[in-house]
Write a structure and sequence with these properties.
Layout: E1 7-8, H1 11-16, E2 40-41, H2 43-46, H3 62-65
Antiparallel strand pairs: 1-2
Length: 72
């Protein structure tokens, strides 16, 4: 039940996943990527530790979070 973190989320990953991920340029602005190339999925991509009022300190409501990156 853990999601990987600290990995590169780019076009190569989308291609390797065979259609299961959204292109990172299409991510909701509420799901930021980090790093020099703005292509790193980190804990803060999904979690807002300063609180947004969402459940479990998430950047999006739980029913929308997975769909922020995943097509299926």
């Amino acid at each position: 039940d853990d999601h990987p973190v600290a990995f590169t989320y780019d076009g190569d990953l989308v291609t390797a996943d065979n259609g299961g991920l959204l292109d990172p340029t299409a991510l909701d602005a509420a799901l930021p990527l980090f790093g020099v190339g703005t292509d790193q999925m980190e804990c803060a991509t999904c979690h807002d530790v300063h609180g947004t009022g969402e459940v479990k300190l998430l950047n999006l409501a739980p029913n929308l979070l997975c769909q922020g990156c995943h097509i299926k």
